[in-house]
Amino acid sequence: MPAMAGLFYNASVLKPGEVRVLRTISMPLAFLIVALLALACQKSEPSPAPAAPPAPEVRVPGEADLPGAWEADVRQKILRVAAEALRERKPGDPAPVAVFDFDHTCVRGDFGRAFFDWMIQKDRIRWGEPIYNALPEDKRSDIRQAVEALGKLPPEKRAGSREQARLRKLMHKSYWGLCRSENWEQCFPWQVRFYAGYSPQEITAMAREVWAAELTRPMGSEPIREGPDDEQPAITGTGIRVYAEMRALIGALSRHGFEVWIVTAGPQWVVRAAGPDLGVPEERVLGMRTAVEGGKLTATMDPPPTFRKGKQLAVEKFIGRKPVLAFGDSWSDAEMLAGARQAVLIDRGYADLRKHAQEAGWLVQPEFSVK
């Protein structure tokens, strides 16, 4: 029998008076042993983990961040979707993404068209076979002849000349002829081929000059005539204005943690000149572009063309994440809008597109006004 048990039970070897004394001595000892064992068990148990610090409060945009002529339900839904995306974001997750078309979504006017016209008037197109081959076949001979006629004039006499007016008219008629055809894929890529021979940085630098000028030109249109007796002029738009509501929205999303991109069917290197004015870094502007060889642009398109499905392909290729919000105004934006968690159509009066948007669950915002 263990020694402990002997202390309590081996009383037969003791005198009657001694048993009581041993019991009296042994009971405190037993309690001491039990207490020591309990203390040892407590020390062997792991200490409870410290309470986690409270999660930092997520800042989300509010109504004051979206001033202007937003429809009330559109404003509320944009804010709700943005807040949900920001609150869902876990530490280490990439920023949520918002994508915007440019012309007639962020601005009133057509920046690519304005730059195209400036290149013609300033005689900046570096004509050569790759560029001539990019022209519509039925207009190629006439445009070549117009270029040659203009080239015969001294440089100081070309601006405002009848020869320049003829070339300008032919180029605009060719451009709008392509854009009004059923195959719009010929329209948007066509324009950027005329930048061949320049570096992307040179195009963006020239575009900054055009952007600044167009912001101050009156909004309207200009007839392009070969002379005062020309009764069939080409027509081009004038002026560009930034929608204040869109500038405020882009700023609010950026301040609260969104990554904002512009995805345009216009020329990438041109629209990059306008991106920072709206709060979008140049490197987050995607658009039509040609391949670069030896640091210079060529007349060969660099896919994907940022039109219709190509816009969504560009989002997948260059951004790599599903947008939380997408904004656009035309069928050119349809696939990009459909690829976002929440699409917003800027309604410019196209009934078929508005119907499609409503059926697809997109938000519909009437076009904003400008001064």
Summarize the structure.
Helix content is 45%, strand content 15%. The protein has helices at 3-9, 16-44, 72-88, 111-121, 129-134, 137-151, 162-179, 187-192, 200-214, 244-255, 268-271, 309-319, 334-338, 351-360; strands at 97-100, 107-108, 220-224, 234-238, 241-242, 259-267, 285-288, 290-293, 296-301, 325-328, 342-347, 363-366.
In what order do the strands lie side by side in the largest sheet? Answer: 7-6-1-10-11-12
Look at the structure and give the CATH class of the largest domain.
Answer: Alpha Beta
Number of domains: 3
Shape: elongated
Please report the total strand number as a whole number.
12
The topology string of helices and strands comes to HHHEEHHHHHHEEEHEHEEEHEHEHE
- Second rung of CATH, namely the architecture of the largest domain: 3-Layer(aba) Sandwich
Number of helical regions: 14
CATH superfamily of the largest domain: HAD superfamily/HAD-like
CATH fold-level label of the largest domain: Rossmann fold
Extract low-pLDDT stretches.
Answer: 1-15, 17-25
Which structural category do the helix and sheet elements fall into? Answer: alpha/beta
